[in-house]
Write a structure and sequence with these properties.
Layout lengths: L9 E3 L8 E3 L4 H22 L15 H21 L3 H21 L1 H10 L3 H34 L13
Antiparallel strand pairs: 1-2
């Protein structure tokens, strides 16, 4: 029953003789944690006082131009198919476009972010952001227009004798 002994555990002392022993403290890990907390505080203070030390490239943390366009095409195509079948999906497309455009506008409004993106990506980045956001709504409108064109084409192909409601009235 070595683990259940009530005798104090001992560790070698820090002196050169090795004869003296000191009891192992059960809460030594707390002392180590306190020193880690102090180190973290010093690091945070250094980053706050010297912000140039923590400077990083902005382009690594934001969407790339091609990433914006790919996301807009994929989301827009999904919403175009959805709005082809049910037109209220246009409101979803408007919401998604608004969120994408407001994300770009947020970068434009933030002075530091705007300057950093201009320095790294150029002014075209913001134009691509706005246009890719609009593409989602344009594709959803295209889905609705395609459906409407198909309905009108089928109506004209059937001779146009019935009205759009099918009541027989022109």
């Amino acid at each position: 029953m070595a683990g259940h002994s009530k005798m104090a555990k001992f560790a070698p002392a820090d002196n050169d003789t090795g004869c003296a022993v000191r009891p192992v403290r059960r809460f030594d890990f707390l002392l180590q944690q306190r020193s880690m907390v102090g180190m973290v505080r010093k690091c945070i203070a250094a980053l706050v006082l010297f912000p140039l030390v923590a400077q990083a490239e902005v382009s690594e943390k934001i969407w790339s131009v091609s990433g914006m366009w790919v996301a807009a095409i994929i989301i827009g195509a999904a919403l175009a198919l959805s709005s082809y079948w049910k037109w209220p999906f246009l409101f979803v497309a408007l919401f998604v476009s608004t969120v994408m455009i407001l994300g770009i506008q947020d970068m434009v409004d933030d002075k530091f972010m705007h300057e950093a993106v201009l320095a790294e990506q150029g002014a075209a980045y913001f134009i691509h952001g706005y246009l890719s956001g609009l593409l989602v709504t344009v594709l959803a409108l295209l889905g609705i227009a395609t459906k409407r064109f198909r309905v009108v084409r089928n109506h004209l192909a059937s001779g146009g004798s019935k009205g759009p409601s099918g009541s027989g009235a022109p």
